């Protein structure tokens, strides 16, 4: 009950802020869309070095939107911790009996829900401008998306923990955004399949571009996705807790 | 009397940058009884914030224990934290992008308060704190004093019985500081709460606290009832205004240690800082010899600031 109250409070706050700063959100969407168009023109204009390797416009659209979704999910914790630190509210969250870890978890889920609206808007927009049609099979996509998000939440907790200890981390965080592109793009046939989100991104791609459904995903792949996602989430949370403990010892939790 | 907070042998050394060790707290122990405003007083860098943050579980002490209503902050963290709420020094503590009402709702909810009771309580709180007009404006547009009042209101809406306020009047103008103090007095009178405040401002302590712990360089140098402390120091200082003195009397008085003699319009003022009550009798004997009229005897008004300086001076010596 207390957890539920905490979660709904967090969700409500995120929705209020999203509505209040709607212009910023719109600005963000336009920027994201513009970046996509640059990539798209780059591919179609320069000729076809990428396309020869089986890259199609559909792949670009799906890859881009997947990356966008994962990036937004990943950045929730580190960036909101930076913001809460600057705004001097982090300590209040730490002092809540629910604890910072649980509240951060609520925040990441609440944000994933509001961010999903932006992701869907981008998907519709990019599909419309590139004239692609994709297989939007919600039943098949949902578990894959959840598995990808689980792993990326783990990365978010991991980076969030680091953020608690090193306040001037922003430029490094930007590098992670690009690393996420690699995770989505890398070929999952080797051990890379164990990388966070790589295999689930691959199957999201296949479902949407090839019209496959859940029954086409082999059992081994399911197991790989489930085990690795849970593993990354667990590691992320463990690191997050360790970093909190260290910040408490240093007396640098929050504002200093 | 029920003890709501027990701090036992708290010790903390920070490892600052470049391996520098800062001893912030050394064996701090004190107890806070229920239902009072308890002051933690000390100059800058004394360790007040470290003490508060340790109580709130934001700083991990090197040694010692803290029990909040019987719950240990280290071992029974969630239970202990449920008992307290804090406004930290120099922090905003509340969301500037949200309105006062939204802040109250959010912090109440993450403390597990049910919305049903809040629908009545929040408007009441806004009213008491003079924020009804501003209830739906973003907090960043409010004055510093109003923001601080809202932070205080947020501590109340959490429902926690113990409020910790780190320098609650710092940076406020006289009026806002006054309002915060009277709100605190009111909280104590009307609600079942205990307030612990830190400050380096003696006036705040003298004005609203019933009990004070004075800390300096990480150690407790006094732990007493405010009235006791004042009495202790007041009783030792007397001012006597007397009529004209003969030269013999003046030499006699000047020989008494800790006695100062100053001419005033109609006679002399004798100030006596008494280490030893016998000195007052000696002075009276000298006066009695010539039947010098005594116009007034007063116990010197000593304010808390002087007590504080004297205690700190004693601690250094
Ligand atoms: N996180 C920290 N790292 C290193 N030194 C600190 C830290 N926090 C406080 N200090 C030092 O510890 C001492 C006590 O600080 P503090 O508890 O903030 O005192 P006060 O609140 O009474 O002014 C000061 O010397 C301060 O510089
Ligand atoms: Mg302080």
Could you walk me through the main structural features you see in this protein, from its secondary elements to its overall organization?
- The complex is a heterodimer of chains A (256) and B (317).
- Chain A has 256 residues and is an all-alpha fold.
- Chain A has one domain (2-44, 54-250).
- Chain A contains 10 helices and no strands.
- Chain A is globular.
- With 317 residues, chain B is α/β, with parallel strands linked by helices.
- Chain B has 2 domains: 3-231, Rossmann fold, CATH 3.40.50.300; 235-300, Alpha-Beta Plaits, CATH 3.30.70.
- In chain B, 38% of the residues lie in helices and 29% in strands.
- Chain B contains 11 helices and 14 strands.
- In chain B, the strands form 3 sheets. A 6-stranded mixed sheet of chain B has the order 6-7-8-3-9-10, sandwiched between helices.
- In chain B, helix 3 (100-110) packs across helix 4 (115-128), helix 3 runs parallel beside helix 5 and helix 4 packs antiparallel against helix 5 (144-157).
- The longest helix of chain B has 17 residues, at 174-190.
- Chain B starts with a strand and ends with a helix.
- The model of chain B has no long low-confidence stretch (mean pLDDT 89).
- The interface between A and B is large, with 34 and 41 residues.
- Adenosine-5'-diphosphate sits between chains B (14, 16, 22, 24, 42, 44-50) and A (250-252, 256).
């Amino acid at each position: 009950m207390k957890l539920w109250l905490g979660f709904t409070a967090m969700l409500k706050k995120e929705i209020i802020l999203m509505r209040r700063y709607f212009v910023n959100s719109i600005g963000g969407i336009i920027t994201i869309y513009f970046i996509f168009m640059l990539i798209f023109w780059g591919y179609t204009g320069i000729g076809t070095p990428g396309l020869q390797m089986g890259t199609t416009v559909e792949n670009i659209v799906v890859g881009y939107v997947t990356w966008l979704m994962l990036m937004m999910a990943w950045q929730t914790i580190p960036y909101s911790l930076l913001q809460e630190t600057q705004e001097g509210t982090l300590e209040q969250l730490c002092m809540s009996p629910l604890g910072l870890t649980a509240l951060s978890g609520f925040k990441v889920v609440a944000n994933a829900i509001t961010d999903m609206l932006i992701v869907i808007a981008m998907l519709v927009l990019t599909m419309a401008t590139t004239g692609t049609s994709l297989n939007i099979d919600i039943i098949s996509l949902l578990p894959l998306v959840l598995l990808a998000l689980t792993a990326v939440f783990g990365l978010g907790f991991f980076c969030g923990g680091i953020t608690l200890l090193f306040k001037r981390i922003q430029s490094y965080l930007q590098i992670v955004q690009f690393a996420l592109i690699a995770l989505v793009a890398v070929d999952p046939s080797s051990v890379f399949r164990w990388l966070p989100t790589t295999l689930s991104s691959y199957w999201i791609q296949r479902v949407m571009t090839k019209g496959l459904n859940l029954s086409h995903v082999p059992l081994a792949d399911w197991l790989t996705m489930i085990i690795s996602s849970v593993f990354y989430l667990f590691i992320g949370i463990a690191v997050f807790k360790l970093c909190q403990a260290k910040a408490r010892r240093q007396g640098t939790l929050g504002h200093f | 009397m029920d003890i709501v907070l027990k701090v036992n042998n708290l010790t903390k050394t920070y490892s600052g940058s470049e391996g520098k060790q800062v001893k912030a707290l050394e064996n701090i122990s004190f107890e806070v009884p229920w239902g009072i405003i308890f002051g933690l007083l000390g100059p800058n860098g004394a360790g007040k914030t470290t003490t508060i943050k340790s109580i709130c579980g934001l700083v991990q002490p090197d040694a010692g224990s803290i029990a909040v209503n019987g719950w240990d902050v280290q071992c029974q963290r969630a239970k202990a934290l449920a008992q307290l709420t804090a406004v930290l020094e120099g922090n905003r503590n509340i969301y500037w992008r949200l309105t006062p009402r939204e802040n109250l709702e959010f912090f109440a909810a993450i403390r597990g308060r049910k919305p049903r009771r809040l629908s009545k309580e929040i408007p009441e709180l806004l009213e008491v704190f003079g924020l009804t007009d501003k209830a739906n404006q973003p907090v960043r547009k409010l004055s510093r004093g109003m923001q601080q009042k809202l932070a205080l209101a947020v501590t109340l809406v959490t429902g926690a019985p113990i409020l910790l306020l780190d320098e609650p009047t710092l940076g406020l103008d006289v009026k806002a500081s006054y309002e915060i103090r009277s709100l605190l007095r009111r909280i104590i009178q009307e609600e079942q709460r205990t307030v612990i405040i830190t400050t380096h401002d003696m006036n705040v302590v003298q004005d609203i606290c019933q009990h004070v712990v004075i800390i300096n360089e990480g150690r407790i140098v006094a732990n007493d009832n405010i009235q006791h402390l004042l009495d202790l120091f007041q009783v030792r200082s007397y001012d006597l205004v007397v009529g004209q003195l003969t030269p013999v009397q003046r030499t006699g008085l000047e020989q008494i240690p800790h006695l100062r003699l100053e001419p005033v319009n109609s006679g002399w003022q004798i100030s006596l800082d008494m280490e030893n009550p016998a000195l007052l009798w000696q002075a009276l004997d000298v006066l009695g010899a010539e039947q010098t009229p005594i116009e007034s005897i007063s116990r010197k008004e000593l304010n808390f600031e002087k007590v504080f300086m004297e205690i700190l001076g004693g601690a250094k010596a």
